[in-house]
């Protein structure tokens, strides 16, 4: 005889099975996204407050105080964040993934997807919000250096942050998930390495603008690299297919056995389609 207790589990005479055992709380993911959004909104407010008054002349002492200190802070913060997260993931890696329980692997995949979601969210702030702002800035202000109020937030803050999160997703997958620990995933590699390559492309872009390419033509060939490497984020679709394939062909059949097909069609099951 089965009964439903107040904790949301299906209780039988033999065992208790959580109805949503495979689900991990998205609270940490939403918290991380809220922190990311809050940080960039604060810096956007800072741009509005200090950009025009203290950000037009890079040789002025006020520029050094208000903007170069923000530049150093952004680089130092993202470097410390990356080193801290990657060290933790490596030192606490699973050294016995051969015996990883399928249910634990499902939970780790949900964590992996949560990290990827935060990565994509950070890419949005860099590749859309602040990138379009930078284009607008160049149309109304003439730069006298590569360090501008727009660039300090975009290129030296938003870019490094999403790179940290992208590498974090890669390290997590390699140290926690069997399907990525045994081989190199081309879709995941492209999804992380492609946007990462926007950073070295930035160096080429700044060199070009300093010597021979004007800002007036935003579709100039010197900007093509941003588009090409940005498109590699579409490889996340391949990562999704890898995860779905792992679920359908191994995890759920292993967990549910012969009842797998029934679970997909039973409307009372949390696995139902």
Layout of SSEs?
Elements: E1 3-4, E2 9-11, E3 16-18, H1 27-54, H2 61-91, H3 102-140, H4 149-176, H5 178-181, H6 186-196, H7 198-211, H8 224-231, H9 236-256, H10 260-265
Antiparallel strand pairs: 1-2, 2-3
Computed structural class: mainly alpha
Largest sheet: 3 strands, antiparallel
How much of the residues is beta strand, in percent?
A: under 5%
Unreliable stretches: 1-19
Spatial ordering of strands, largest sheet: 1-2-3
User: What distance separates the N and C termini?
Assistant: 26 Å
What name is given to the CATH topology?
Glutathione S-transferase Yfyf (Class Pi), Chain A, domain 2
List SSEs in N-to-C order: EEEHHHHHHHHHH
Protein architecture, described:
Helix content is 70%, strand content 3%. By secondary structure, it is mostly helical. It has one domain (32-265): Glutathione S-transferase Yfyf (Class Pi), Chain A, domain 2, CATH 1.20.1050.50. Strands 1-2-3 form a 3-stranded antiparallel sheet, with no helix packed on it. Mean pLDDT is 84; it is low at 1-19.
